[in-house]
Write a structure and sequence with these properties.
The protein has 205 residues and is α+β, with helices and mostly antiparallel strands. The protein has helices at 16-26, 31-36, 40-60, 90-96, 100-104, 108-120, 144-159, 170-178, and strands at residues 6-10, 64-70, 73-81, 128-135, 163-167, 182-187, 196-201. The longest helix is centred in the first third of the chain and has 21 residues, at 40-60. The radius of gyration is 16 Å and the shape is globular. 35% of the residues are buried.
Length: 205
């Protein structure tokens, strides 16, 4: 059987839907999206549309979107926001992502309050922000995440710029600590949502 090489490349517009589908599968059990969409069927139906809207907004902005692909198959995707990118408020997100009300339905208010709280937790010091990274479940634990992360982290080290992220999966903290991130605080989401952990990485020499 022929082995297809894995390639990391900038995402193209044609990658939006398949990358969103990867995110939807990767985050199907994530505490945040379980909180936003407690009904599993609604979550499965709405997450691909939500991530597609977010990816389209990221493409319109200054975010850098990378995918790892094996032939035509996307294995994972990472979205980085550069230093100086504005942190949108809940209202600004609603304006930029006009499809949010239709996608989120009755959970619109819950989702926007959560996204706003996570956005406000970002540090003010200039940094690269890992806004989203997801790996298709069959490809998890095969080096996809590290492959997507290392070019960005290497760039941070060479430029002397910190990196930041937030995770709602407690089990992910140790993984990011292995990449020299450190927990800087716990984020309490409004209404009793699941805790998240803010992490910060100083540039490595």
């Amino acid at each position: 059987m022929r082995v297809v090489d894995r390639v990391i490349r900038p995402a193209a517009s044609a990658d939006t839907e398949p990358a969103a589908a990867v995110f939807a599968r990767a985050f199907a059990g994530d505490p945040l999206y379980g909180w936003i969409f407690p009904d599993e069927q609604a979550r499965r139906r709405r997450l691909p549309r939500l991530f597609a809207a977010q990816l389209r907004a990221a493409r319109r902005g200054r975010d850098e979107i990378d995918v790892m692909a094996a032939g035509e198959q996307i294995l994972g995707c990472a979205v980085w926001s550069p230093p100086g990118a504005r942190r949108p408020s809940a209202g600004q997100q609603l304006t930029v992502l006009a499809s949010f009300p239709l996608i989120l339905g009755p959970r619109l208010g819950v989702a926007l309050r959560c996204f706003d709280a996570l956005g406000r937790a970002r540090p003010t010091e200039p940094h690269w922000y890992l806004s989203t990274i997801g790996v298709d479940p069959p490809a998890q634990r095969t080096g996809v995440a590290r492959g997507l992360l290392m070019p960005g982290l290497t760039h941070c080290d060479e430029a002397g710029i910190p990196a930041a992220l937030v995770t709602g999966e407690r089990s992910n903290v140790a993984y990011y600590e292995s990449l020299r991130f450190a927990v800087t605080g716990e984020i309490k989401l409004p209404g009793g949502g699941p805790p998240h952990w803010a992490m910060w990485r100083k540039p490595q020499q």
